[in-house]
UniProtKB/TrEMBL annotation:
<dbReference type="InterPro" id="IPR027417">
    <property type="entry name" value="P-loop_NTPase"/>
</dbReference>
<dbReference type="Pfam" id="PF00005">
    <property type="entry name" value="ABC_tran"/>
</dbReference>
<keyword id="KW-1003">Cell membrane</keyword>
<keyword id="KW-0472">Membrane</keyword>
<protein>
    <recommendedName>
        <fullName>ABC transporter domain-containing protein</fullName>
    </recommendedName>
</protein>
<dbReference type="GO" id="GO:0015833">
    <property type="term" value="P:peptide transport"/>
</dbReference>
<keyword id="KW-0997">Cell inner membrane</keyword>
<dbReference type="GO" id="GO:0016887">
    <property type="term" value="F:ATP hydrolysis activity"/>
</dbReference>
<dbReference type="Pfam" id="PF08352">
    <property type="entry name" value="oligo_HPY"/>
</dbReference>
<keyword id="KW-0067">ATP-binding</keyword>
<dbReference type="InterPro" id="IPR017871">
    <property type="entry name" value="ABC_transporter-like_CS"/>
</dbReference>
<dbReference type="InterPro" id="IPR013563">
    <property type="entry name" value="Oligopep_ABC_C"/>
</dbReference>
<dbReference type="InterPro" id="IPR003593">
    <property type="entry name" value="AAA+_ATPase"/>
</dbReference>
<keyword id="KW-0547">Nucleotide-binding</keyword>
<dbReference type="GO" id="GO:0005886">
    <property type="term" value="C:plasma membrane"/>
</dbReference>
<keyword id="KW-0813">Transport</keyword>
<dbReference type="InterPro" id="IPR003439">
    <property type="entry name" value="ABC_transporter-like_ATP-bd"/>
</dbReference>
Length: 286
């Protein structure tokens, strides 16, 4: 398969390193700071979740990493090092070509991921052929294979328009689209918030299975601490535009240091080991 040549990761280097990132709103010459000093890294095969209150800056941080930040929002300081390259200084064409291939994205608004009047199969084929030098027949085979992997009837889904599919089905297809080119990083911004609990759980299970298969790192954005504790290896807690605490899932759950993290945990007491029975664990991260 052709396409973009991305730097090979050196042993032990993070897939993504965000360094002192600051994002502001520029408005008629004035600057209003939204996030400051955001620093974290994610390694291959790892899931790091950013959790925190509404409006704390989780989504705009994810957008900056996916190079989707739009005016009036702008990065005013820091680095976003993806496989060692600072995306904030890299040529726009290079950064654009990473998205969809080396960096996959899934969002809460799964319908927004699709063009409404084009059949999903055609859209998947287009994504593949934008990034990989394959024939139409090869791209179709790959798309069908991924529809099957996300546990959908491949033929029927391939021929469907987005409006003919449910939210859960569309989010599965969005996940297929984000992972089929085997990205090094998946940015998942509230991927199940718009879905019912059972469908959401199935999507998260699927995401974990595919992560093992593809071997990518995941940046998971969520306001749901319960899901985050079940699904991530490390957790970064955000409040008022700053990361107040970052630690392993166990450390955050069992020994939170910051008063805001402690308050978040108190709000869902059943997940702490110290203060009551925790969620039943059926797998490594469940
Ligand atoms: N286009 C924009 N223009 C101006 N301000 C914005 C824009 N987008 C977001 N903001 C502001 O940036 C802040 C952070 O927003 P963000 O969407 O990242 O929060 P969040 O932590 O993801 O919240 P939620 O969990 O509710 O999605 C908010 O105060 C929001 O009002």
């Amino acid at each position: 398969m052709g396409g973009l040549v991305v730097k090979k990761l050196q042993e032990g280097h993070p897939v993504l390193k965000v360094n002192q990132l600051a994002i502001s709103v520029l408005n008629k010459g004035s600057i209003h700071s939204i996030t400051e000093d955001i620093t974290f890294e994610i390694h291959i095969g790892e899931t790091l979740a950013i959790v925190g209150e509404s409006g704390s800056g989780k989504s705009i941080t994810a957008s900056a990493i996916a190079s989707l930040l739009a005016r009036p929002l702008t990065v005013t300081h820091g680095q976003i090092l993806f496989q060692g390259t600072n995306l904030l200084e890299a040529p726009a064409r290079y950064v654009k070509s990473l998205r969809g291939q080396a960096i996959g994205c899934v969002f809460q608004d799964y319908r927004g991921s699709f063009t409404p009047f084009i059949k999903v199969g055609h859209q998947l084929v287009e994504v593949i052929r934008t990034h990989a030098q394959v024939t139409h027949a090869e791209a179709k085979k790959m798309a069908m294979d991924w529809l099957h992997r996300v546990k959908l009837p491949a033929e029927r889904s391939f021929r469907s328009y987005p409006y003919q599919l449910s939210g859960g089905q569309l989010q599965r297809i969005a996940l297929a689209a984000a992972l089929m080119l085997k990205p090094a990083l998946l940015v998942a911004d509230e991927p199940i918030t718009a879905l019912d609990v059972i469908t959401g759980r199935a999507i998260m299970d699927l995401m974990e299975d595919l992560q093992r298969e593809v071997g990518c790192a995941i940046l998971l954005i969520s306001h749901d601490l319960r899901q985050v504790i079940k699904r991530s290896h490390r957790i970064a807690v955000m409040q008022n535009g700053r990361l107040v605490e970052t630690g392993s899932r166990d450390q955050i759950r069992d020994d939170p240091q910051h008063p805001y993290t402690q308050a978040l945990l108190r709000a869902c007491p059943r997940i702490t080991r110290k203060h009551g029975p925790h969620i039943q664990e059926t797998g490594m991260w469940r």
